Amino acid sequence: MKDEVPTTEERVANLKGMGSSRKRVEDVRFTQGRGNYVDDIKLDGMLFGDFVRSPYAHARVTTIHTEEAMKVPGVLAVITAADLEPLGLHWMPTLAGDKQMVLADGKVLFQGQEVAFVVATDRYAAADGVEAVEVDYEELPVVVDPFKAMEPDAPVLREDLEGQTEGAHGPRRHHNHIFTWEQGDKDATEAVMAEADVVAEEMIYYHRTHPSPLETCGSVASMDKVTGKLTLWGTFQAPHAIRTVVSLISGIAEHNIRVISPDIGGGFGNKVGAYAGYVCSVVASIVTGKPVKWVEDRMENLMSTAFARDYWMQGKIAATKEGKITGLWCHTTADHGGFDACADPTKFPAGFMNICTGSYDIPTAYLAVDGVYTNKAPGGVAYRCSFRVTEAAYFIERMIEVLAIKLNMDAAELRRINFIKKEQFPYNSALGWEYDSGDYHTAWDKALNAVGYDDLRAEQAQQLEDFKAGKTRRLMGIGLTHFTEIVGAGPVKNCDILGLGMFDSCEIRIHPTGSAIARLGTISQGQGHATTFAQIIASEIGIPADDITLEEGDTDTAPYGLGTYGSRSTPVAGAATAMAGRKIKAKAQMIAAYLLEVHDDDVEFDVDRFVVKGAPERFKTMKEIAFAAYNQAIPGVEPGLEAVSYYDPPNMTYPFGAYICVLDIDVDTGEAEVRKFYALDDCGTRINPMIIEGQVHGGLTEALAIAMGQEIAYDEMGNNKSATLMDFFIPTSWETPNYETDHTTTPSPHHPIGAKGVGESPNVGGVPCFSNAVHDAFRPFGLTQSHMPHDHWRIWKTANGLGLHS
Amino acid sequence: MIPANFEYHRPSEISAAIGIIQQHGDEARVVAGGHSLIPMMKLRMAEMGHLVDLQDIEELKGIEFSDSSVVMGAMTTQHELIDNADLASRLPILREAALQIADPQVRYMGTVGGNVANGDPGNDMPGLMQCLNATFEVVGPDGRRSIPARDFYEAAYFTAREDEEILTKISIPVPATGTGYAYEKQKRKIGDYATAASAVMIGNGAASIAMTNLSDTPIWSEAAGTALAAGDVDGAVAAALDAIDPQEDMRGPVEFKKHVAGVILRRAIARAQSRVG
Ligand SMILES: Cc1cc2nc3c(=O)[nH]c(=O)nc-3n(C[C@H](O)[C@H](O)[C@H](O)COP(=O)(O)OP(=O)(O)OC[C@H]3O[C@@H](n4cnc5c(N)ncnc54)[C@H](O)[C@@H]3O)c2cc1C
After folding, report:
1. Hey, which of A163, A276, A440, A605 has its CA 20 to 30 A from B5?
2. Which residues of chain A have pLDDT under 50?
3. What is residue A3's predicted lDDT score, i.e. its pLDDT?
């Protein structure tokens, strides 16, 4: 038999490490229906809880009649705020430094607010119990418009804050005002505006929508009265943070709380915060001594759990006649609903909205954000974006287009002459960020070439002529976007949530036979962590990814971390994984040197082994080293091979991308059809290209939904008009266009493996791209701004307003 | 999203079904495919103590063809409208319309009888049946009677069918060969009810026009059909638009709906005309 020595390439391929399009290991279980979600958890004697919710957006709750409900067979308890008050649990802290009612305490502030929690032996009895609870309401005047909420005589929404002039983020200047957050240089920016050749001004509204993950929110609480230990399964994007918060508000010692996030069916920011259902399931379990499950239905999810966006962004952009941007000004009115339950790092009440200078070298800028209470559901979470980054990207990418119109310039060229140049990185933006790396011009030219930009413009001009000549009723729009994201929160020096530093962690244990288990402080909701993090370890320490188990989500076993949202897992936990791997590699090097009887410095790492420098035939594989680590007495070296790393990132990472969309609009029906979508993403080092592509496809489809129809809409009375999937748009394969994906690679200089994070880029870049395409189609007829979502009737209305129907 | 308690009945004879309904009165309702009724029950907008499932009644199934008509049992599924080749050759508009209803999963369960009996202005089959001049047969405690589709709809969820009657058959006259047809529907997405939809039949000196989800009942406009038969497309559209009364909802405001109603109708007319052979 021939002695087959694997080549280096074969050994690299065998690892399925970074750069390999390894198939997702999770999918074996998901595609066979073998996932284990919160609602799959069934415990002996488990009870069910369900909410009585307010039909009114603003009302006083005078009496709650529970007698009839208690008569329903199977109903065991009806919990109200009065029951929670002695425990101090009728209100809970929000992640944004505000507090929120767990159950209506005297009044309700939005339709769908939790009023009472019915506990019963099964779901059906609980639902019947909910029907039987009668609540007396006294209706109060409703405010759904944040500008009206700030009028002097607007109704007082938060009576609990009456007279409180200082909020969690500084002074409050009105009874419905939450905070003002200012960044940049106001005076200098106003001076630039006053002197500029050209100033374009526009109100850019990014409407309210909702992350609407496939799996709604839920929890199962089980208080073991014998051991005093509380186990809480739930749809948590940040299980450790939930453990700490539960401990702080319930008084249960943290070691007696075990929080488990099992498989999670999508999060997109919806599952970062704390919900009344979690608290009520815990209380009900403590009271009854039995496990209690709460799982909301789709309507409850859309009506009461965290929404996203709802930013009114008044903008001014100044430039020279030639199109060089000299300044950017933005005032945002942020509609937070009845409680400020955003999930931003504490020092950033408007998230990273100050990334709104985008990809451009804008010397002077000013941003102010006013947070406002209204009678809508609370939230304001980062729906597949780093905190408020999609709002910022939408704002600047619309303002660039508005400026291009004012200058009568091509918007691609306007972008090109204003991009931050490659040699300017690291780049300090006018609003306070240090961009780590970028090469925008290369990406932009590659994108324009790939779609044949000039030809597209020529075709568009022809179609416009045909339209004017009455030969077609369709207009062609070309949407451009160059976005810069800011992800990977973040450095503990300026990023914390409720005082919890936003580092993350990884612990790796190598088993004696050379396979391994790794645990992280993050939690996958479909991103494929079990696949990609194993690939990082594989490349770092030379053990095949297939031999590495990855675990997340159980606070009793995983190291402490702040969870998964804001594209932070790869930038932060991915870095921790590489660093833990390097600790293991360092020890492995000592062991290898001992086994090979040479000095530590005389061996070097080679894919899956340490070799003697200059004598590659003398080596020890990682498998051999692992076995020796446990089973051989090595002088001066402790047995075992494991490491843990807690990574506090020195900076954020700044992924970017160039997206181009081509669509056709039927001006008579308002329908838009996407004929082409090209997405170039630069997320630094690419760990698994196939997973990146999957993330981009998914994120673009969400972006399509948001831009083209998805919204949470309220009427004047505060009734939610979009609480079912009939009206809340989630695209199916039928509505989803084809996507072409592409990339450039500009590694992050400060990240151990140069990776930047990609999960959210397509949502951040996709929304302005679709929207810009719609606007572009109408540009020849004088349109500068029309608000999203661009559903049929709104597009029709735009066409109608421009006289295209006469 | 959990319905209130109910008793479930599954008779195999029409008379038994009627008996159960008579016994429980208002408290009882028949269920066919359940894809309109069960969502209403889950929302607790419909609460009934007794559900009478029609699935086991053989008499309500099957499609019969004669030279002049097609007679469908009420329990014919919407999927069968797509799948049945004989039907597609005689009444291709049924297939064209059924393909625009909901999605395959709904169509496997949802029935033609349920769609026309439901009385929801959003349903596509009622307008279509009016366009085709179909007749519905109902059976009640007092026997059988026939009601023309064009006389069946009174208001949203109110029809000429009495509570104790069951819709058993739908018979549709087969149009003369060479008749052009079209079912045109604008909707926001798969699974959505129409923003505006219209059914058009034209040929051999006759024409028929009906509109869906633009009033609280389907709208069949005799004037529109007469104008179209005379070759007056503008007159037909004007007459149809005159007859509708759309309401604002998340699909859009009234002026938008009126406008697209005209656009969709013109497209349906054009396609139907192109198929006249
Ligand atoms: C997601 C979704 C999307 C949909 N989209 C569309 C669409 O685009 N267009 C459309 O037309 N429909 C649509 N539908 C409705 C669907 O076509 C239903 O199947 C249909 O409306 C009702 O038929 P069914 O057999 O399911 O009736 P059921 O839901 O069982 O019954 C509906 C009503 O009719 C009564 N009924 C049923 N059969 C009889 C009978 N034989 N005699 C007397 N009364 C009877 C019932 O008592 C009930 O009141 C959609 C449904 C869903 C869930």
Report:
1. A276
2. 1
3. 64
Tokens of A151: 């009028």
Q: Residue B142 domain-assigned? A: yes
Q: What would the two tokens of residue A44 be? A: 């002996």
Check: pTM over 0.90? Answer yes or no.
Answer: yes
CB A485 within 8 A of CB A760: yes
The CATH-assigned architecture of domain A38-140+216-264+271-304 is Alpha-Beta Complex (3.90)
Task: Select from B149, B173, B197 the last residue of a domain.
Answer: B173
Tokens of A733: 């394969």
Fold of the A8-35+504-647 domain: Aldehyde Oxidoreductase; domain 4 (3.30.365)
Same domain for B209 and B140: no
Within 10 A of A449 (CB to CB), how many other CB atoms are there?
Answer: 10
Give whole-number Cα distances, A489 to A190, A436, A567, A706, B13, in Å.
Answer: 31, 14, 8, 25, 67
Q: Where are the domains of chain A?
A: 8-35+504-647, 38-140+216-264+271-304, 307-488+652-801
How far, in Å, are B237, B244, B256 from residue B270 at the CA level? 12, 20, 21
Same domain for B195 and B261, yes or no, is yes
Q: Is the CATH code 3.30.1520.10 the one for domain A307-488+652-801?
A: no
3-class DSSP assignment, residue B15:
helix
Question: In chain B, which residues have pLDDT < 70?
Answer: none
The reply to whether B277 falls in a domain is no
Q: What is the C-alpha end-to-end distance of chain A, expressed in Å?
A: 84
Domain end, chosen from B173, B206, B226, is at B173
Contact flag A800-B259 (C-beta cutoff 8 Å): yes
8 Å CB contact of A793 and B256? yes
Residue B219 has phi, psi (to 5 degrees) of: -115, 115
Distance CA A339, CA A95 (A): 11
**Comparing C-alpha atoms, which of B37, B189, B98, B42 is closest to residue A726?**
B189
Q: What is the pLDDT of residue A245?
A: 87
Both structure tokens of A611: 């070799």
Q: Mark whether B157 and B221 lie in a shared domain.
A: no
Confirm whether A711 is a catalytic residue: no
pLDDT for B12-59, tens place per residue?
999 999 999 999 999 999 999 999 999 999 999 998 999 999 999 999
Give the domain extent around B11: 7-53
Is the CB of residue B106 below 6 angstroms from any atom belonging to ligand 1?
Answer: yes
Q: Where are the beta strands (DSSP E) in A427-467?
A: 427-428, 434-435
- Residue B142: count of CB within 10 angstroms of its CB: 9
- A554/A261 Cα distance (integer angstroms): 6
| Cα separation values, A201 from A190, A197, A327, A399, A405, Å | 13, 13, 12, 8, 11
The reply to whether residue A668 touches residue B259, judged by beta carbons under 8 angstroms, is yes
**Does B2 map to a domain?**
no
DSSP string, B20-62: HHHHHGGGEEEESS-TTHHHHHHTTSS--SEEEE-TT-GGG--
Annotated catalytic residue within A243, A309, A384, A779: A384
State the complex-level ipTM.
0.97
Q: How far is A179 from B12, CA to CA, in rounded Å? A: 67
Q: Locate A124 and state its tokens.
A: 């059906």
DSSP A385-434: SSTTHHHHHHHHHHHHHHHHHHHT--HHHHHHHHBPPGGG-SEE-TTS-E
- Residue reference for tokens 């287009």: A401
Answer whether A8-35+504-647 and A307-488+652-801 agree in fold: yes
Output the pLDDT for position A2: 53
Catalytically annotated residue among A237, A525, A535, A695 = A237
- How far is Cα A301 from Cα A211, in angstroms, rounded to an integer? 10
CA distance linking residue A521 with residue A505, whole number of Å: 5
Average model confidence (pLDDT) across chain A: 96
Q: Choose the closest CB to A732 out of B5, B190, B256.
A: B190
Instruction: Give the separation between CA A656 and CA B48, rounded to whole angstroms.
Output: 56
